[in-house]
Design goal:
single chain, alpha/beta, Nucleotidyltransferase, domain 5, 4 domains, two-stranded antiparallel ribbon, 15 helices, globular
Length: 388
């Protein structure tokens, strides 16, 4: 083993893994047998098959290494991560965007595992959100249901275009092209997809039955329904302590302002990367909330008039996730709307303050304002008020 001397450590025994499609390189860093102040490091290569991952686990046990870090590279990390987690190791998934800005990263891939292990033992790596095994199963079903729903929509559009190209204007005489009358003359494919979606919905209802309270909390928000609540909880889980704040959850979902530059590219990116399933349902809930007479509806309409509907969807999705985080962090609470005139009331208050301060200033007074402490709020109203 190679021995090196480093500064104080966050973890005593660690392993860093650089994962590829067919293979991975693992580096362990442990205290030196000769001098506890020095570190011993060893690097080995493994495959990504189950047998090879188990061989890696045996090697880690031999050196009493309890913690493993790996970089989120596509979907390649999932197999080794889940297998090592099942073997009892403390697995940490490093955010590729965060770790690439850490100092000292080598310019060649073979050194990545050594660099990850060194960063991990110093506590410089921030863990990504990884769903628990229970919610991974639920998420597989909800994602498949959403994929089937999108496939059904494509089939409906394809069938209608086929009829239009044959000069059959069925959609102009049938109110619902895919209702009882329209479906009788459509392809059977749509009905098969409908049956599969119904079967998946039954399974999802059964898997999420223990979380009925959280489902009702999510459903209480404007624009949200049962299916939306199911999809959201399947993606995030019900333990909101995994996200320090609602802002962290919104950032993870890609519902935050875009960065101005990235490398050589200047200006705004087209979209912020995030969880695409959660982002898709938030786009739907934002549009649905925009049609309601609520505070979120007023927010959507105000932003849509000034900056367009796309930015309004992102902004309202950000607000909804913050409310969602607050609700699930406070058992028993429900969403309480602040009213469609919320922004007008806020503007009126600011105008009155400015008017009176100006009058007193004209009389020669210097005014210092201090807000009186508010009484303890109703816990059922806290979710919507604090997220605002």
């Amino acid at each position: 083993m190679d021995e090196v001397t480093d500064e104080p450590l966050y973890r005593d025994r660690v392993c860093g893994i650089d994962i590829g499609k067919a293979g991975m390189v693992a580096t362990i860093r442990v205290p030196s047998d000769k001098d506890p102040a020095r570190r011993a490091a060893e690097t080995r290569a493994f495959g990504t098959t189950r047998r090879e991952v188990l061989a890696l686990a045996d090697w880690l046990r031999c050196w009493q290494v309890p913690a493993v870090v790996m970089e989120a590279t596509g979907d390649y990390w999932k197999g080794p991560f889940y297998r090592l987690e099942a073997e009892g190791f403390d697995c940490v998934l490093a955010d590729a965007k965060q770790v690439k800005h850490l100092p000292g990263r080598p310019k060649h891939d073979p050194g990545d595992s050594k660099w990850l292990a060194a960063c991990f033992e110093r506590g410089a790596v921030t863990s990504c959100f990884v769903a628990t095994p229970e919610f991974r199963v639920i998420r597989l079903h909800t994602r498949y249901r959403r994929d089937l729903t999108e496939e059904r929509t494509r089939e409906k559009q394809r069938a209608e275009k086929l009829l239009e190209s044959a000069a059959i204007k069925l959609s102009s005489v049938v109110t619902d092209l895919h209702g009882v009358t329209g479906r009788d003359i459509m392809l059977e494919r749509i009905d098969r997809v409908n049956a599969e979606i119904a079967r998946l919905t039954e399974v999802i209802d059964r898997l999420l039955a223990p979380y009925e309270e959280q489902l009702q909390q999510a459903e209480s928000m404007p624009g949200w329904g049962r299916r939306t609540a199911q999809d959201a909880i399947a993606e995030t889980g019900v333990d909101m302590s995994r996200f320090p704040t609602g802002g962290h959850l919104a950032s993870w979902a890609g519902r935050t302002p875009l960065e101005s530059s990235s490398g050589k590219r200047k200006g705004k990116a087209k979209a912020k990367k995030g969880n695409r399933y959660l982002g898709g349902l938030l786009g739907e809930t934002a549009v649905a909330a925009g049609k309601t007479q609520t505070r979120e509806g007023a927010r959507y309409r105000r932003i849509a008039r000034r900056r367009g509907k796309a930015k309004a969807c992102v902004a309202v999705g950000n607000t909804q996730l913050k409310v969602y985080h607050k609700l699930l962090s406070s058992p028993g609470t429900r969403y309480t709307d602040l009213g469609p005139d919320y922004y007008e009331r806020q503007a009126s208050t600011r105008r009155q303050i400015a008017h009176h301060v100006g009058k007193l200033g004209a009389l020669g007074f210097e005014v210092t304002l201090c807000r009186l402490p508010e009484p303890d709020p109703d816990p059922r109203q806290a979710a919507s008020t604090q997220a605002a």
